[in-house]
Amino acid sequence: MRPRTTPRTTPWTTPWAIGGTALGRAVAAVAALLAAAALLIAVGPAGAGPAHTATGHRWITDDRGRALVLTGLNTASSAKSRPDGLPWIQEADVRREADQLGSDFVRLLIQWRNVEPSPGVYDDGYLAGIAERVRWYGARGFHVMLDLHQDVYGPAVKGNGAPAWATETDGLPVAGRDPWELTYIEPGTVRAFDHFWGTRRASRDLRAHYAAAWAHVAARFADDPAVLGYDLMNEPFGGSMQGPAFEAGPLAALYRQTIAAVRAVDHDSWIFVEPEAVSANWGLPNGLPYLADPRGAGEAARIAYAPHLYPLPMDLGGGYTADTGRWVDRTLASWREQTERTARRLGAPVLIGEYGLDATLPGALDYVTAVRALADAMGAGTAYWSNDPGSWAPWDRSLHPTPLLPVLDRPQPRAIAGDPVAYGWDEPHRTLTVSWRPKPGVRGDTEVYLPARFFPRGAAVTGAEAGEWEAESRILHVTSPHAGTGTVTVRIRPRAGAGAD
What is the pTM of this model? Predict the structure, then answer.
């Protein structure tokens, strides 16, 4: 999603914008969507079941088998509108993020229009520009997820993402709308999506082009150690087909086709999938089915679930106070329930691919704290939207820190050398607690990030042995004192003396 100067809405939640009789149609459509989704979730599709881990769910892991706690930003909304499809950042901006936030993850936006500017013709110069930015992040220990981003399909229908040659509107009109999300329901936009999904016959197989474009990208980055994986499509929209019929039908079919294409050139990277945003973003059920990974089932599979989180009251521009806050809290509880239900069905770990808001709104910083606590409780990574300077970001337009920055910058594990049980930061007591069970085959240390404002003199560790201290990145390595199978619980507090172990 792009930074918003107006409330962020979804098309059929604002019926007054689409005609005098639209309210009844919208209510009926949403009611039917929810009823169908609830039925689908209750009876199928068949799922992979709970993972055999301490928490009952899977974890995104690195090449040493350690569970990753990914934390970072989306980079960047600017890539959506720039002709070159590249974000605004320079290498110094990556350094600033590493130094001031301790991020270890970035959701890096790329554009189909730049990857494949003509049918079957790929711009490797564009990918070289992306690779340069991946190198900047990799040099500072970031894990990079490449996100083939779209909003409102593509520039030819006043959005971003798809190239003009892949946009077939049959001459139907597209008017710019305010808020911009209403452009999704313009006739030409709906028709472009319908041609892409095959709801209407297009002049060429657009989904085959999309999968092949992803295969070209994956072939370029398969051996890049900084690239963790690929987010196949940002916030899919079904055009005239919505809800479980879309997610279990055309969307799942595209995912299967693209997964196969990626696996033909990249056997090991993680592949991230998203549900349709209109329901999942608000904590409603979705119908995304189990997606098999050609590299294997169970622990061998590397399919991850990456929904977004934008509770409706905040989507409409509200803050996090009083009655609105209670509504948001109920949404967060529902979002967790539905997300974990879908993750179990997919047999997949969870990453919150987007969350965020105008941080100047009342209660905004409390909301960000609540989402981070939710992610900790779920064992989910997070990518805040976004790093574009302004009121949504940890930096203002002069690149000075905003009040959001210290809320995002907090102690946390980055890699856990075993099967995680729980972790969390207790700010009042200045204690980071991390628990895990030793797991065969996992190599390396547990790594924790300790920001200077909480740990100015380093850390005192109980329950395990403190190892290497990386002063520049403020990463402390921790090793288990025994090689048994029992739970290891480590507590890390600020040291009173100088230095760090």
Answer: 0.92
Residue 198: closest CA among 155, 251, 268, 272 = 251
Q: How far apart are CA 413 and CA 446, in angstroms?
A: 8
Q: Phi/psi class of residue 109: alpha, beta or left (left: φ > 0; alpha: ψ in -120 to 50)?
A: beta
Q: Which residues, listed in sequence order, are joined to residue 143 by a DSSP beta bridge?
A: 105
Contact 348, 58 (CB under 8 A): yes
CA 205, 210, 213 angle in degrees (round to 5)? 125
Taking the CA atoms of 90, 234, 232 and 83 in sequence, report the sign of the dihedral they define. negative
* Dist. CA 479–CA 447, nearest whole Å: 9
* Cβ atoms of residues 447 and 476 within 8 Å: yes
- Give the length of the chain: 501
CB-side neighbour CA atoms (13 Å) of 222: 14
Angle of helix 364-378 relative to helix 322-346, nearest 10 degrees, comes to 30
Which tokens belong to 110?
């790329």
d(CA 22, CA 100): 48
Q: Which residue has the tokens 């200077």?
A: 452
Bridge-based pairing of strands 71-75 and 381-384 is parallel
Phi, psi for 416 (deg, rounded to 5): -115, 120
Q: Cβ of 323: how many Cβ atoms within 10 Å? A: 9
User: Tens place of pLDDT for every residue, the chain, 501 residues?
Assistant: 444 333 343 333 322 222 222 323 333 334 434 443 443 333 333 445 557 788 888 999 999 999 999 999 999 999 999 999 999 999 999 999 999 999 999 999 999 999 999 999 999 999 999 999 999 999 999 999 999 999 999 999 999 999 999 999 999 999 999 999 999 999 999 999 999 999 999 999 999 999 999 999 999 999 999 999 999 999 999 999 999 999 999 999 999 999 999 999 999 999 999 999 989 999 999 999 999 999 999 999 999 999 999 999 888 888 999 889 999 999 999 999 999 999 999 999 999 999 999 999 999 999 999 999 999 999 999 999 999 999 999 999 999 999 999 999 999 999 999 999 999 999 999 999 999 999 999 999 999 999 999 999 999 999 999 999 999 999 999 998 766 779 999 999 999 864 444
Instruction: Pick the closest to residue 183 from 201, 159, 147, 200 (CA basis).
Output: 159
- DSSP notation for 181-246: GGGGGSHHHHHHHHHHHTSS--SS-HHHHHHHHHHHHHHHHTT-TTEEEEE--SS---TT--THHH
